[in-house]
Write a structure and sequence with these properties.
mainly beta, 6 strands
């Protein structure tokens, strides 16, 4: 019965283009970061795939996919926290 509740791990394929150098990242408040932007977090480059807020909390939850491939990550931040990011030109 425990086998039915086990969720297999999800992995994301690596993107075709290499991530930009760390000098290209500028700090932005999280409230200005949108889906498609690249974020430098914990020394790794992540792509923002989803951004959610709730009425119960002022925190913003973002779903991050690693650019080099691997497991997705979810993180919560306050809106005015500053993160190093490269803004997407098209806002994918």
């Amino acid at each position: 019965m425990a086998d039915k509740l086990k969720i297999p791990p999800v992995f994301v394929d690596a993107e075709t283009e290499p991530p930009p150098p760390s000098a290209a990242f500028r700090k932005y408040p999280l409230e200005h970061i949108a889906s498609g932007d690249l974020v430098l977090l914990h020394g790794q480059v992540w792509r923002v795939k989803d951004r959610r807020t709730t009425r119960a909390s002022p925190r913003i939850t973002v779903t991050l996919w690693p650019v080099v491939g691997g497991r997705p990550h979810s993180a919560s931040f306050f809106p005015r926290e500053w993160l190093p990011a490269v803004r997407a030109a098209s806002g994918v």
